[in-house]
Amino acid sequence: SKEEGGDGLMVKLSKVNGLKKIEDEAERREMITPALREALTKQGYKLIGSHSGVKLCRWTKSMLRGRGGCYKHTFYGIESHRCMETTPSLACANKCVFCWRHNTNPVGTEWRWKMDPAEKILEDALEKHQTMIRQFRGVPGVKPERYEEGLAVKHCALSLVGEPIMYPEINTFIRLLHTHHISSFLVTNAQFPEEIRNLVPVTQLYVSVDASTKDSLKKIDRPLFKDFWSRFLDSLRALGEKRQRTVYRLTLVKAWNVEEMQAYSELISLGQPDFIEVK
């Protein structure tokens, strides 16, 4: 078990002899290894500190040119050219079969890396996002008024990669976004029910519902947690307790999880989401 020391050090309680071992923050390794840095950079990610990232979405580029935005624009009025896609945790607790980031994103069931402060992550994310937007200045087809608007971020999609609620300072990060008048859509993979309960209100809270039975969830998400199914169900219950806008995001993959409609309806009654999105 772990306790937080008063001086900010992590205290580990040894199961063997009960002695407390201090683990200094400096001894913790960084989440982003050199190999991971190279792989993610090739994929277009701008890395922030030791565990965060930001990336320019294709819909942001589309809307800068005066074309259509993503489903968030169609459904909720979010302006894609003013949306920043980022994550404060590149790590995840699943190895989903449909994830396109295999062998690049780190996995884990708890935070065990060095940690950057939320203020610094947001500051760097905004700076790197704006730098990417500036590369579109004067590009043929880009609308000057859209370009100017794009420099002022109004929305943050915390759904880029990984599991944002694994980041221990996620509540601070969300509060900072809202202080900057930036709305927040956060996506979680339904493996951290207590973190969902402890989460401060976001503009819209998503839970990924990738399967409707224990067997199919294990095959599709390939979770690291042994008690993944009870965590999954409890995460849906935790979502249902939230007094804010909530969404189930159903990732339906042909021949994997489309045939279980009755089971899906039972899960929907469990979490009572405001919206259901089928991906």
UniProtKB/TrEMBL annotation:
Keywords: Iron, Iron-sulfur, Metal-binding, S-adenosyl-L-methionine. The keyword Repeat does not apply. It comes from Pogonophryne albipinna. The keyword Metal-binding applies. Residues 76-279 form the Radical SAM core domain. PROSITE patterns: RADICAL_SAM. It comes from the Eukaryota. One of its GO terms (molecular function) is 4 iron, 4 sulfur cluster binding. It holds the Pfam family Radical_SAM. GO terms for biological process: wybutosine biosynthetic process. This is Radical SAM core domain-containing protein. The lineage of its organism: Eukaryota, Metazoa, Chordata, Craniata, Vertebrata.
